Amino acid sequence: MELSAAQVRHYEEEGYLFLPDLFAPAEVARLRAELPAIFAQRREENVREKTGDAVRSAFAVQTYNPVFAGLAHHPRLIDPAMQLTGGPVYIHQFKVNAKAAFDGDIWQWHQDYGTWARDDLMPEPRALNLAVFLDDVTEFNGALMFIPRSHKKGVIEAGHDTITTSYPLWTIDDDTIRKLVAAGGLVAPKGPAGSGLLFHCNLVHGSPGNLSPFDRTIVYISACHVENHIRRFKRAEWIAHRDFTPIEPLPDDCLLREAPPARP
Ligand code: SIN
Ligand code: MN
For residue 203, what is the domain's CATH number? Predict the structure, then answer.
């Protein structure tokens, strides 16, 4: 799938691109059907919320679940990733963020590349997130907020927050956020399950907790140009992958085939 020149320009200028209806209801249903068994697993890749047993992030699901492996090789995600980074990509990180009804905690303001540069020594911000909504995302269930154009600021000073949530993050202070929002404003892309959202790895983002009775499940595939692979293996392999093999996109109907898609 090729993005139009206007879509590429929007991504480059604003730092993100919202693609409503990227996946059909039948494709979303196939992915959603896998979630209860994934979240029920007691494995280190399933990071739970600080306050209880709800899964916050299920990492590396594509390494053991064939349906999510199909999503990780989907041409509607991987083709745009190659187009926007200018070449073949590998998957640096893969996570399903559940943001469960009532229990889903905040994500503090941050840039993903801030962590990838500081912790993983990824050389350049030549990477992006490919997000797919597996639930409807509304004003009630903790939508992701972006500061448009903040990706043009480079890596912003950040502090390592190991306390606020169950997941350590390099977070940006309130004064800096105030200034960035005064310049760029805020957007919170909302839409039905199946929507796609691509965003630059330096775009500043965060999300509030989910007080609503509606889950807000989003899958995030972090795709990086193969030449820009990480240089330090400090974090666990399931958080920062070390297989830099270029992803070969599968056929467009890979999520709807009878047999599960081929493993990577
Ligand atoms: C993230 O920034 O990695 C996740 C944010 C969210 O799922 O709300
Ligand atoms: Mn992030």
Answer: 2.60.120.620
